[in-house]
Design goal:
By secondary structure, the chain is α/β, with parallel strands linked by helices. It has helices at about 15-25, 50-59, and strands at about 10, 25-30, 45. The two termini are about 20 Å apart.
Length: about 60
């Protein structure tokens, strides 16, 4: 889409997705409704989609 990776955000719920986002140099957000955050790369985690807009504003 023509945007540099450091200007992109990825919302993921899986370890491979988080790893791919981090490897690409993108900001990773972990959607984890059950609160699981035991990933190798600790992305910003959130439990409800309604939290995402404020997380995007802060990053």
């Amino acid at each position: 889409m023509g945007h540099p990776p450091n200007h992109c955000a990825v919302v993921e719920d899986s370890l491979p997705g988080i790893q791919a986002a981090v490897a690409a140099g993108m900001q990773a957000f972990l959607f984890s409704p059950d609160g699981t955050t035991d990933f190798e790369h600790q992305p910003t985690a959130f439990k409800a989609m309604k939290e995402l807009p404020s997380l995007l504003e802060c990053s």
